[in-house]
Amino acid sequence: MREQPDQPPQRVRLIFAALLLVLLLASLDQTIVSTALPTIVGDLGGINHLAWVVTAYLLASTIVTPLYGKLGDLYGRKLILQVAIVLFLIGSALCGIAQNMPELIAFRALQGLGGGGLMVTTIATVGDLVPPRERGRYQGYFGGVFGVATVIGPLIGGFFVDHLSWRWIFYINLPIGGVALAVIAVAFRSRADRLRHTIDYLGAALLAGGLSSVVLFTSLGGTTYDWGSTQLIVLGALGVVLLVLFVLVEMRAAEPILPMTLFKNRTFSVTSAIGFIIGVALFGSITYLPLYLQIVKGYSATASGLLLTPMMAGVLITSITSGNIISKTGRYRPFPIVGTAVAAVAILLLSRLAVTTPIWLAALYTLVLGLGLGMVMQVLVLATQNAVPYEQLGVATSGSTLFRQIGGSIGVSIFGAIFANRLAGELADRLPPGVHAPAAANPTLVHQLPEAVKQPFLEAFTAALHPVFLAAAGFAVGAFLLTWLLREVPLRATAPAEGIGESFASPREDRSDHELERIISAVAGGRMRTEIYRRIVDAAELDLTEAEAWLLSRIAVEGSIDDLGPPRSASPEEIARLTARLLENGYLAVDLDGDRIVLTETGARAYQQLVEAGRAELTGLIADAAPPDDEVNGVLRRLAVSLLADMPKRPAVDVVAG
Fold this sequence. Notes:
Helix content is 72%, strand content 1%.
């Protein structure tokens, strides 16, 4: 009768700790590099292609993320997770020993191929480890880790640069990842059942080729090649053709990475466009602010990471506040409108940064930017889930994250091209005749330049950042205009079940059943859990107290009372009294061998009534999502079974003691 593999609690905790480490490493690598970039460029050169250190990882992880979920269903989560960890660790080791910028970029892409799998596979693995009733809580931990990693990444990267070497931001992955790999290899038992999938390899290849061509076009234009050169024309044309082919393939694929039918939903189309632009603004800001703080203002890498925390704090403040307000009012549309407007103003203020700007003012600008972004990102996830039918719930949710990641990949490369082009011109105009700028923009080297060269260099560097932020502000204004197209759709009961992970749009797998389980588990937990449990027992119309219904359900799941683990909801004395009541009323009996207490036929029928009442109660939570079908009913029954077997502590104690 078990729905989960036999995973002892100690093993589950051990595996879960390893998974948290894995997710922490993968999410850190999206932001930890930002504060190290000035030093990396100083050591390896190639400031023109600085953006690719970030873009290569983002692009690779974005492309493979949709594939990993299906591969895990097909070949088992354990094998796919191990492959992803090994790829990530190999990429990390190679990044640490890279001797030039092309090597580092290539190795970052390899690292991203593993990193994309780590995120989505760790989240999916929760379904193999814990019962449905607890998935919302466990995945909430994952969301928290993702959010915290996004906040502390720049700070940790700066610490390693200042006290060890930039290479340690990659080396540190090896021992931690090695421990996680060993724990998963020894302790994790993958589920035996497999889901058959048709993997959309052609769609993934076309998307990878198309996005790579677009990113190369934007990053090489005006620096390596003239805009009118044959190489750039071919790259641009290739990008357009491959992306058009991707759309055509997705329209015919059995299980597309991104179903084109989703775009018939106006809310999904609008939120995806806004998410794309927010990705541009967020990653652009994180990537180029450390350059200003270290090169122009002369701060250490650690200090520049610390000065980025106001932006992340702003995201958390407004995302939590807006989430609470939305839960109470049921209205979400005003938040992305206000948020994008605030973000646009903040980025416009950042474009006014100068060599003499006080550092407190720069920190204030980043705080305002964070306050704006926090009102947008989690609302996009909520609005998308609220607008699509059940069968599209998983792929629409993961699709929202996909567009944000694509926006980050393309945005960083666009800003990199703008910065490199403008910097060359500004240096030529400002430096004295016959003086050449340092080939590598190492912060230490820059501040050791003679004053006659140093000041013009800093002014040129600052001036080159202005068009970067102006372009980002233009994108943010575009997002602001798009938010007015977002319609206010009445919120479902399940919609406000979001947490810290959604503040930073943490990745999700694209299975609708797992996403529905996560949402309902979150809704049916917390303060509502006691009330929902009471309603289920009342609806079953049995001569059972809530405590008796709980024990009956536990025995039905475990097989006999002797198989119960240490219960958290009642003491051994309370269990004994409840057992006596159930025996007296004919729900339990001693088996023929005389050594086990099991359900009677009456008890089995009562349990089925409880499960059906639970299914009906949970159906009410999603009544406005879609008419329940066989798959949805299966999800709801699994959740009802788990919910009945884990009653809140207070009712059990009150009833038994009384």
